Amino acid sequence: MRSVSTRRLLLAGLLVALVLAGVVSYYASNHPDGLNYVAGRIGFLSTERPHNSDGSPFAGYATRGVGNAQLSGGLAGVVGVLVVGLAGGGLAWLLRRRGHGPSEDGR
Q: Would the CA dihedral through 71, 73, 74, 75 be positive or negative?
């Protein structure tokens, strides 16, 4: 049985995440935020307050300045995958490098 390298596995996972975020999200529900949808159906949506990130470029599962809703959501998803991937990869790289030094007890 042939083993799969870690690099290939990570690249395949990244590709799947990008396709899901960028393409499959086009077919997702029109109500992506379940809490807002339920709040509207039950009747407590009027208690909603502005969020600190409401003015950010990717607030509300969308990309500011992109008129097409599906494209806007897909682009926001792709950027989200890349940001989380870079942050997670960077953290893993830092922790891995940190773990190669001698331990406190000299072993």
A: positive
94 exposure class (CB count in 10 Å sphere: 0-12, 13-18, 19+): exposed
DSSP state letters, 44-75? -GGG----TTTTSTTGGGS-TT---HHHHHHH
Dist CA 50 CA 22 (whole Å): 27
Give the separation between CA 104 and CA 84, rounded to whole angstroms.
32
Query: pTM value?
Result: 0.72
- 62 sits in the region (left: phi over 0; alpha: psi -120 to 50; else beta) called beta
12-40 pLDDT, tens digit each? 999 999 999 999 888 877 666 778 888 88
* Residue 71 and residue 22 in contact, taking contact as beta carbons nearer than 8 Å: no
